[in-house]
Write a structure and sequence with these properties.
Layout (H helix, E strand, L loop, with lengths): L5 H14 L4 E7 L17 H8 L2 E7 L5 H8 L5 H4 L22 H7 L3 E6 L13 E3 L6 H13 L6 E6 L54 H30 L6 E7 L14 H4 L3 E4 L8 E8 L3 H8 L3 E2 L4 E2 L5 H4 L40 E6 L10 E6 L3 E5 L10 H5 L1 H7 L6 E2 L2 E2 H5 L4 E4 L18 H17 L6 H6 L2
Parallel strand pairs: 1-5, 1-6, 2-8, 3-4, 3-5
Antiparallel strand pairs: 2-7, 6-7, 9-10, 11-12, 12-13, 13-16, 14-15
């Protein structure tokens, strides 16, 4: 073998760096987005970049958040643990101050990818705590309401001449509510702007896509009212802005010769920010878009039937990176946090630590092995939960769902259902609430939405709209009792502290 020398060696090394390292990862997570995308059959949504990604990869049709609350969900995404196990029951910011246990550090996604030889970078919404647990190597500034600008800001990180592969955690604030109300609306109750600008002004570098209220589809959990339609039109505009950010990222990757060396995962923290979606454990809150483009998977355009959830993300990304101990279902370089990671100097040695024995493996599992097999199974069922969103929103709920039935246990059912501040103020809800408690709200009344029964039991394969509660109907009493046992078993498996209520309330 002849060795390269001089100018030719320099050119060879430069070309190697320019082509980039193998097995890069972009994890793209949006804020409060349902599967309202063209690739999911939405005939109104203009999302060509995400649709193209799905055609060139895998579209999961049964992907679920495990909790429909922003910080709590993101803690699951980055730990592979249900939020009651990682400690982050609700919001991290402001006066809410929920925080993951320090010894989650042993399972933390960004930390373990860094240990596996990745350069890790984060841009956009962070929304978890403590930073020491979920620490990235680099924090990139960007406007979370403009995914195009974010992509441009992340370009230097993506294309850096470095032999290490990169992991980019790309988190928009779109299509979360925010930005005030649309002053130009003729309605008395004016719609939220969902991050859009007043007077149809565009975000820098974005070709804003506008939607007509009369054209938007109405999800079954929402009322078909002018207020809902105007808010949905704003929501869809925000979704299309996200799509242009995906397009820009793909362009950057292709120009740098990295598109076929980079895993792209696109999802959301939970469903859309409307009452009946976000903060609930109904389908509108838990169902999320989930698109994966693995450049090393030969099969393309797969519409996958497997049930997956957010607890699977961390083990899957580590599996892709070759950093997962598949036998023990934990990082290949896992270290006992009690021994390897002393608490920060600013806190006490035992401050905010969970039980170490419960934090030595992931709740989720990698779906990488089934990625190219559209009919392969992953989970037979999904366990989901909710305890808090904001601090004033205490309302614990637990869910067991498979492809036939769905059981919701409203643990705090004697209490009225509490509202997130942005959902309470939403014109789509207030328009019905101000009429009366008997006013319709989707398949329910306002009263039924606020005052919930202890158990909600749905034949979900025949009733995906969750319109017919089977709890209390003699014909389904045996199935209900069987699913209560399944729920209880899931709670035991995942160390849910609320499992104890079965023993003192149902001895």
């Amino acid at each position: 073998m002849k060795f390269l020398s001089g100018k030719f060696l320099t050119l060879f090394i430069s070309a190697t760096f320019l082509s980039g390292a193998e097995k890069n990862i972009i994890f793209f997570i949006t804020d409060d987005e349902s599967p309202t995308l063209g690739c999911y059959g939405d005939r109104v949504a203009k999302t060509p970049a995400i649709d193209a990604l799905a055609k060139d990869g895998t579209l999961f049709l049964n992907a679920f958040a495990t909790t429909a609350s922003c910080s709590a969900s993101r803690s699951v995404v980055m730990s592979g643990l249900h939020n009651h196990a990682n400690g982050q029951y609700g919001h991290q910011h402001s006066f809410h101050k929920f925080s993951s246990y320090f010894n989650v550090i042993g399972l933390s996604l960004p930390r373990n990818l860094s240990k596996a030889g990745y350069r890790s970078g984060q841009i956009g919404k962070y929304h978890v705590s403590p930073e020491e647990v979920f620490r990235f190597d680099e924090y990139i500034k960007g406007n979370p309401r403009n995914a195009v600008q974010m992509a441009n800001q992340a370009k230097e990180f993506i294309t850096a001449e470095n032999e290490k592969p990169f992991f980019l955690y790309f988190a928009t604030s779109d299509p979360h509510r925010g930005g005030g109300i649309d002053r130009n609306s003729k309605l008395k109750l004016k719609p939220d702007m969902f991050g859009n600008k007043q007077d149809r002004k565009p975000h820098d570098g974005v070709n804003e896509v506008f939607y007509q209220p009369k054209q938007v589809p109405i999800p079954s959990f929402l009322p078909d009212t002018p207020e809902t339609r105007e808010e949905l039109a704003q929501y869809y505009q925000s979704v299309s802005r996200i799509d242009q950010g995906v397009a820009k990222l793909v362009e950057i990757l292709k120009d740098a010769g990295l598109y076929d060396k980079t895993l792209i995962v696109f999802t959301s923290d939970h469903g859309m920010a409307f009452a009946g979606g976000k903060t609930t454990v109904y389908e509108g809150g838990l169902r999320v878009p989930f698109v994966v483009r693995n450049p090393y998977e030969k099969k393309r355009g797969i519409r996958h039937q497997a049930m997956i959830s957010h607890i699977d993300i961390t083990p899957t990304l580590l599996d892709f990176a070759g950093a997962l101990d598949t036998q023990r279902n934990r990082p290949l370089q896992w270290e006992d946090p009690g021994k390897a990671f002393p608490a920060p100097q600013t806190t006490g040695p035992k401050d905010n630590r969970g039980v170490s024995a419960k934090l030595s493996s992931y709740h989720g599992k990698s779906w990488l092995p089934v990625l190219g097999e559209p009919m392969a199974s992953h989970w037979d069922s999904i366990f989901a939960s909710h305890t808090f969103h904001e601090i004033q929103m205490y309302y614990p709920m637990r869910v067991f769902r498979d492809k036939k039935f769905k059981l919701i246990w409203n643990i705090a059912h004697p209490l009225p259902y509490p509202f997130a501040s942005d959902l309470w103020a939403a014109s789509s809800f207030q328009a019905q609430y101000q009429q009366s408690l008997s006013a319709p709200y989707g398949k329910k009344t306002v009263r039924q939405y606020i005052h919930r029964p202890e158990f909600e039991f749905f034949k979900i394969d025949q009733d995906p709209e969750e319109s017919n509660n089977l709890a209390g109907k003699p014909k389904f009493s045996d199935q209900l009792e069987a699913y209560k046992e399944k729920l209880k078993s899931a709670q035991k498996k995942f160390q849910d502290p609320w499992v104890m209520k079965w023993s003192y309330e149902y001895p």
